[in-house]
């Protein structure tokens, strides 16, 4: 990823906003869209040699869990990346991280905490280089989910080499040190960010992660008010409230 200096200067923050002007998000619901997501996952994982061991499909049962939200990110109307987000509660414990680090996840949930667990991150190889802003805009819905659900922690189960980035970028704490995993055949570590503590700092540092409440509802609301999921969701960072506003820091 980028150096800490790059993250700290205003240039990169402006670049994020400029790229976001050409981004649309789509909550994946249709069979055809899921097939596109599966193909993108396969290409991205194969290119980085991180295909799960003995995998038979790039779609799995928990893609369709009631607390799972699969997103496609479209750049100039082309699918370029994807992310799945789980909203995990003591009553609903389905998540990607729980299959890898069950003891740590259950400890959070047994303490009554709620979690946002991003998984299945995949990005087109053309946009995966260190100078691309798209990886950061792909994880933008993770922050939005933490605000929408007022979750206690955002999780990151990642390769150890990426841990320093998440500690800088998401102010994350190490929960489980590097551990060999059977699912992937390589080491992963588990980090967690204290969402309420970092929101205002993160929004001030990167205004592209701001969002209006109605954008978050379009992304995550499955109530009867939305009988049909919106085809695409346009980012609202440029019109969002100021990061030091209570509406931005706390769920309204």
Task: Describe what is shown at a glance.
Helices cover 36% and strands 22% of the residues. With 252 residues, the chain is an alpha+beta fold.
- Helical residue percent? 25-40%
| Average pLDDT level | 86
Structure annotation, total helices: 11
Rg value: 17 Å
* Overall tally of domains: 1
What is the makeup of the main sheet?
7 strands, mixed
Task: Please identify, by name, the CATH architecture.
Answer: 3-Layer(aba) Sandwich
Shape: globular
Strand order of the largest sheet: 1-2-3-4-5-7-6
The percent range for strand residues is: 15-25%
Q: State the end-to-end distance.
A: 33 Å
Record field, number of beta strands: 7
What is the element string, with H for helices and E for strands? HHEHEEHHEHHEHEEHHH
Low-confidence stretches: 1-7, 243-252
State the name of the first-level CATH class.
Alpha Beta
Would you tell me which CATH topology applies?
Answer: Aminopeptidase
Q: CATH superfamily membership, which one?
A: Gcn5-related N-acetyltransferase (GNAT)
Label the structural class.
alpha+beta
InterPro entries: Acyl_CoA_acyltransferase, FeeM_cat
Domain N-acyl amino acid synthase FeeM catalytic core: 36-192
Pfam families: FeeM
Protein name: N-acyl amino acid synthase FeeM catalytic core domain-containing protein
């Amino acid at each position: 990823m980028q150096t800490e200096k790059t993250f700290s200067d205003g240039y990169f923050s402006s670049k994020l906003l400029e790229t976001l002007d050409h981004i649309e998000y789509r909550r994946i619901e249709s069979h055809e869209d899921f097939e596109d997501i599966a193909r993108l996952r396969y290409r991205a994982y194969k290119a980085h040699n991180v295909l799960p061991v003995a995998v038979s499909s790039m779609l799995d049962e928990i893609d369709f869990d009631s607390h799972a939200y699969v997103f496609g990110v479209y750049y100039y109307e082309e699918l370029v990346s994807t992310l799945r987000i789980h909203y995990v509660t003591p009553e609903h414990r389905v998540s990607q991280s729980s299959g890898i680090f069950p003891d740590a996840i259950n400890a959070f949930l047994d303490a009554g905490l709620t979690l946002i667990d991003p998984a299945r991150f995949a990005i087109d190889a053309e946009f995966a280089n260190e100078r691309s802003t798209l990886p950061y805009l792909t994880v933008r819905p993770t922050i939005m989910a933490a605000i929408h659900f007022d979750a206690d922690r955002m999780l990151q189960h990642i390769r150890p080499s990426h841990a320093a980035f998440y500690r800088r970028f998401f102010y994350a704490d190490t929960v489980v040190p590097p551990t060999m995993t059977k699912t992937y055949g390589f080491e992963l570590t588990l980090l967690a960010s204290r969402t309420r503590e970092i929101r205002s700092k993160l929004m001030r540092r990167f205004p592209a992660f701001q969002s209006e409440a109605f954008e978050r509802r379009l992304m995550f609301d499955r109530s009867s008010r939305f009988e049909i999921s919106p085809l695409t969701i346009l980012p609202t960072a440029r019109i969002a409230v100021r990061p030091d506003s209570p509406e931005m820091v706390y769920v309204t």
